[in-house]
Amino acid sequence: MVVNSASERVLAGLDPEQRSAVTAPAGPVCVLAGAGTGKTRAVTSRIAYRALTGEISARHVLAVTFTARAAAELRQRLAVAGVAGVQARTFHAAALRQVRYFAPRLLDGRAMPELLDSKVRLVTLAAARAGLRADRTAARDLAGEIEWAKSSLVEPGEYVVAAAKALRETSHEPAKVAEVFAAYERLKRTGGVIDFEDVLRAAVWGIEEHPDVAEQVRNQYRHLVVDEYQDVNPLQQRLLDAWLGGRDDLTVVGDASQTIYSFTGATSAYLVDFPRRYRAATVVRLVRDYRSTPQVVGLANAVISQARGTEARLRLELVGQRPAGPEPERRIFTDEPAEAAAVAARCRALIDAGTPAREVAVLFRTNAQSEAYEKALAEAGVPYLVQGAERFFERVEVRQAIVALRAATRSLPGDTPLPAAVVEALAGVGWAPDTPPPGGAARERWEALAALVQLAEEYAATPEIVPLGVAATVERPVTLTDFTEELARRAAQQHVPTVDGVTLASLHSAKGLEWDAVFLVGLAEGTLPTTYARTTEQVEEERRLLYVGITRARQWLWLSYASARSPGGRPRRPCRFLPQLAPTSATERASGGRPVRTPQRRAATRIVSCRICGTTLLAGPDRKLGRCATCLSDIDDELHERLREWRSRVAGAQKVPAYVVFTDATLVALAERRPGRAEELVAIAGIGPRKLGLYGEAVLALVAGAAVDEICPQKTSESDR
């Protein structure tokens, strides 16, 4: 009787869908759980209910999660329900525990190899063996590729083909990455060490190749539960299959619309295919959202309803269960500093009105965006903490850049324009403005240094006012020395210790978290979706990333973007995934962005179609090229080379970075489209009347076949030889 009453208490308060998941019969169960629908409660209640009714023994359950925090929460909830003995662990923790237990048997009494905390040091050595010099950033990117390959069950000899099929963007040639991968594996064996992927592989090997180990493991773990099943990679699925050994008492929980880690090897394919793999599977959809207001839920549904592709087949339409709240606020600002200042002001107002700072979050697409918000919050007196990343001025590359800038104050002429001086100084630490490098860590480093260049451009736009006598003043251009002093001031201002503050986080690191008030910022084309999202699948993952961000908010949601990066900068378009954002007036920006009362007309945007397939082009680089990034290029390589040489000479003569003349994308567009008249030139995005007047005649001559030496003489300075 006691047991029955306890099991009934587990069911109390569950909604009909949760109850269906909890009471589903033994066997394969797939719980499709939308954001905020109580999936953790459903999972723990299913385990507790089955244990309390005597259907299973708790000690025979293995519940696998993706974070130690989630595992701890699951164990805590089970303890409250009166169920003890369930093993709730991450994939790696569960595998490591088994490998250590069976090591004496599997290794003939030898000690288990030491586990590497980080791959970076060994990858650096492996790169050297492969003839590459890899700094810490490059080593991190190479380590990431090795992790992807091993998680995807790809061996060194298979890497080149597998990377091409997966459209991997690598920091080095795929063949070189494969060499580093092979050298890394050899160094591990020689050094007697293993990495985390090896632990999973060892667990698989122990079960698949040793029947006695398989029997013992499967006798212990008879009922398996997997949380966040959309994030499983092929190696983890292989281990899960080894644990199961053909049995089917498996409960998986996931949400295909929150698949945002495919770059690590995670795939929602196993979740999508679950009902086909297990024909007798019970599938339950949890759609009642208990986290967010109906207004936030409505926006999330509107964004994800446009999704396409495999994951969209399991799309859930959430139903808000909370009382009505405020409509999400949607804002446009003239530039990013104005956007950051408005966000900081609103954070200040929310905190002053009683919202705890820890219940407020500012979420952005890339970590490099954090600096503007760190500065704005510090100036507004709002405490903050950076989730999952270092503060901007604490990053290694930023500290190195500031040292280089200080050194440049002694070596560069004092009349060098500030942005040009910063670009030249950063060249000394390996930064170039033209093209961001592939690879996650390398690209983050590039973006952080690009943020410093942007700061310099903003700072240079405000000359210093110098008094001349009693009533007269004169403007003095700011210098590189002034800028380094400004950076020092900002760094000092942002290094105030904080314990409880507003959370600054990337959208990826915000997964699994929630706050009362959420600011989604920088929602502009080129940032979200990122310019690096070129395929349909990549663009759809960017959409899901925005969906994850929206569903982090419980009560209050702000969405904004700046129409230009810096004051007077090039205009940008809002994120294509969102309904139209409302502009704000100058007065409203100053007051933190109050709602607009009078609708304002937006300038018409010229529709650009792919000249090859006819698709409407939305991404900036694609519009400039005049074709989809995935459509076959018909570039004239010889013309492209002459254009690059001409641009280099012009930039050198004008003492400006090459991209100021024409960006790489514009050069590609010119070499592909080969314009013959001025009207065709200005039809290429990025070539307006000014650049037509400056460079039009020369470009048309080059397209017509003129040699570079006929248009601009060969430079003879040492730097150009």
UniProtKB/TrEMBL annotation:
It holds the Pfam family UvrD-helicase. This is DNA 3'-5' helicase. InterPro entries: DExx_box_DNA_helicase_dom_sf, DNA_helicase_UvrD-like_C, DNA_helicase_UvrD/REP, HRDC-like_sf, HRDC_dom, HRDC_dom_sf, P-loop_NTPase, UvrD-like_ATP-bd. Residues 12-293 form the UvrD-like helicase ATP-binding domain. It is an enzyme of class 5 (isomerase). GO terms for molecular function: helicase activity. It catalyses: Couples ATP hydrolysis with the unwinding of duplex DNA by translocating in the 3'-5' direction; ATP + H2O = ADP + phosphate + H(+). Its EC number is 5.6.2.4. Keywords: ATP-binding, Helicase, Hydrolase, Isomerase, Nucleotide-binding. Residues 633-713 form the HRDC domain. Residues 294-555 form the UvrD-like helicase C-terminal domain. It comes from Micromonospora lutea. It comes from the Bacteria. Belongs to the helicase family. UvrD subfamily. ATP binds at residues 33-40. The keyword Disulfide bond does not apply.
